[in-house]
């Protein structure tokens, strides 16, 4: 029996054990888990320190190190996330519609759990806790496969989750960690159709593309963010400067950070030098600019065609100057990963056209793309941000982890 077969069998049984678990009990366990994370934070941080030490040995960048790092504050944020999930409405059992048909059959459609969710993710160990909280609240079992760079952190976190389940009198196999971080075992998880009902990859372009190519389990594509900000000809340039700086520098290692800047030709001469000077005061950014932007940004480098399609996850940003609003929309739709896009403008007609025509899960007017987040959107902890259109799109909260079932009750009806 393979590693994934063993985990899958346990997860299937655990998902059945969860079917009758009510909201009050789920919330009680989540609150206990939040308390346990705080109580065991010293041990969690010690294991995280091992991962950070190995990362430094391998020459990881400071930006990627930030994705991996846990602190007391970040553990506190994970615990608060668990508490917030207890405040969210439980979708399980929700009646979507109910009616009696012409044959006298009483038909009710309800929300039900998916069953077993597989999660493949990179770097950020907090994903273990966020994913568990949403899966558990929706009566799903979950199999977690994190990256090798965070293996010690993930082991420590999942141990806390499992011990809390045991202490609460529940099957700990509700959450399991794939401790073998080899690619072969990851591929086994992608193809575990007998056990996994839904697979959610969360990470960079290479991970997402690998899962799409090799998975046999249904997949929700998430996370890759070649995120654009378009500065329109009517933009308030002070506002635009603040928004671009925030979207690029506040936390460049996350998927809702801006990677590409598009600027209308009418404001490029004034705006681009202003931005280049202002952003240096916050954090230096390497701009990779097209032929029209390059003379306006003395320290910029010439952009390659690949730069315009790249999610840098670093202090790097591509720059494109366009002739018109429609040129910006067409450019963004060519290079978007359908995550988050923003327009800075004072023209309501331009704003409406941008929001209607740009093909992304979240489209902003006069705001930073850094707000694309389950907490901000009122969904609680998110399990990922879907960039596809089937089943779920945008930040995925509780409802995205449910399916539906029809309950039909009759009194002996047969079909003629």
TrEMBL record:
EC nos: 1.2.1.41
Keyword Oxidoreductase: yes
Catalytic activity line of the entry: L-glutamate 5-semialdehyde + phosphate + NADP(+) = L-glutamyl 5-phosphate + NADPH + H(+)
InterPro entries: Ald_DH/histidinol_DH (IPR016161), Ald_DH_C (IPR016163), Ald_DH_N (IPR016162), Aldehyde_DH_dom (IPR015590), G-glutamylP_reductase_CS (IPR020593), Glu-5-SA_DH (IPR012134), GPR_dom (IPR000965)
CDD domains, per the entry: ALDH_F18-19_ProA-GPR
Signal peptide region: none
Family annotation (Pfam families): Aldedh
NCBIfam families found in the cross-reference section: PRK00197.1 (NF001221), proA (TIGR00407)
Family: Belongs to the gamma-glutamyl phosphate reductase family.
Record-linked PANTHER family: DELTA-1-PYRROLINE-5-CARBOXYLATE SYNTHASE (PTHR11063:SF8), GLUTAMATE SEMIALDEHYDE DEHYDROGENASE (PTHR11063)
Described function: Catalyzes the NADPH-dependent reduction of L-glutamate 5-phosphate into L-glutamate 5-semialdehyde and phosphate. The product spontaneously undergoes cyclization to form 1-pyrroline-5-carboxylate.
Protein name, UniProt field: Gamma-glutamyl phosphate reductase
Species this protein is from: Streptococcus sobrinus
